[in-house]
Design a protein that fits this description.
8 strands, 47% helix, two-stranded antiparallel sheet, six-stranded mixed beta sheet, alpha+beta, 187 residues
């Protein structure tokens, strides 16, 4: 990530804290905390959206950021999102609205404050289990690679009962079992 993109991410996190907007930093940044870091050309947040929150966020960040007012939908969970772009580097920050999806609500409720060593700031992230569950759910090659690394690093600390209850619901237990077999881990 470009150094100024990292600063932009830190600025967004700072504004979310200052404006007391509940959020989780998701996607590759959450899997990086629990696994081995890989580079990212975008960041993903889930925010507890309420009327006016995007306006407050946009106004608080200033002219280096552009908030796309066009709403799109993530098809897996039906979650609505907006894209915030840091103009100097064209770094995109996806803002997913916390919706009604049961797992999204559960992972949001279980979120925790952790230190982001690369940025030297505290952020709110999902648990390692919820990172794995979501990565399995997305199912793209890069997401499965992220899930594999998080499992490999975090296996002894993972709540396997919780993890399996969600993979059973989402129909991703076979994928989880395949990753565990490849890693020679019993879960």
């Amino acid at each position: 990530m470009h150094p100024s993109s990292a600063e932009a991410l830190a600025e967004v996190i700072g504004v979310l804290h200052k404006k007391e907007i509940p959020y989780i930093l998701a996607g590759v940044f959450s899997s990086n905390v629990y696994g081995n870091p890989r580079s990212a050309n975008a960041a993903e947040f889930v925010i507890d959206h309420h009327p006016g929150v995007l306006k407050v966020l946009g106004e608080s960040l200033g002219n280096d950021f552009t908030l796309d007012s066009q709403i799109s939908m993530e098809l897996q969970t039906g979650t609505l999102r907006n894209i915030l772009t840091y103009n100097p580097t064209q770094f995109d920050i996806e803002l997913f609205r916390l919706g009604l999806d049961p797992h999204d609500r559960e992972r949001f409720a279980r979120r925790r404050h952790l230190r982001l060593p690369d940025l030297s700031i505290d952020a709110v992230l999902p648990t390692a289990e919820d990172v794995v569950i979501q990565k399995l759910r997305w199912g793209r090659d890069k997401d499965l690679a992220d899930a594999r690394v998080v499992i490999a690093v975090q296996a002894p600390q993972l709540d396997w009962g919780y993890l399996r209850s969600w993979t059973d619901r989402h129909g991703t237990t076979a994928v989880l079992d395949r990753l565990l077999s490849e890693l020679k881990i019993s879960g």
